[in-house]
Amino acid sequence: MAIRSYKGVMPSFNSSVYVDESSVLVGDIKLGDNSSVWPLVAARGDVNYIRIGERSNIQDGSVLHLSRATKNNPDGYPLIIGDDVTVGHKVMLHGCVLGNRILVGMGAIVMDNVTVEDDVIIGGGSLVPPNKRLESGYLYVGSPVKQARPLTEQELAFLKISADNYVQLKDEYLVEVY
């Protein structure tokens, strides 16, 4: 694994977490229990911090970064991902906050100072521009993203199922790797 220190701070996680050996994690990153980071993910906790909740998964080719503190923005924008979040392939998350039970579709981009409330689906290829708030219980699609419709009961249930499926998959990988 490419787990690297930045200014003396190392990424931290326990043995229930799977991080693929081709991923790069640098600096102030904390991964919650049973989370997973898949091939070719780049996550840099260098100019701020990254927190990933329990049972969340970051899929292949995704990029996770943040914004540094500035005179106009003294706290910068960390990247905070809640519990039971599925981040699809090739997603870019930058200085945003994702709540719990969220699915970010493949190739989506979520930019600085965005807050995504719990129980949301962001469609593949969508662009969430800076300073947006995505309300709980909806599907959002487009570039720029627009609220499309309320989530169905089946879609709401799938958010947890998707996270659970990745917990099972990472457990299988952990048996193979260790």
UniProtKB/TrEMBL annotation:
<protein>
    <recommendedName>
        <fullName>Gamma carbonic anhydrase family protein</fullName>
    </recommendedName>
</protein>
<dbReference type="InterPro" id="IPR011004">
    <property type="entry name" value="Trimer_LpxA-like_sf"/>
</dbReference>
<dbReference type="InterPro" id="IPR047324">
    <property type="entry name" value="LbH_gamma_CA-like"/>
</dbReference>
<dbReference type="InterPro" id="IPR050484">
    <property type="entry name" value="Transf_Hexapept/Carb_Anhydrase"/>
</dbReference>
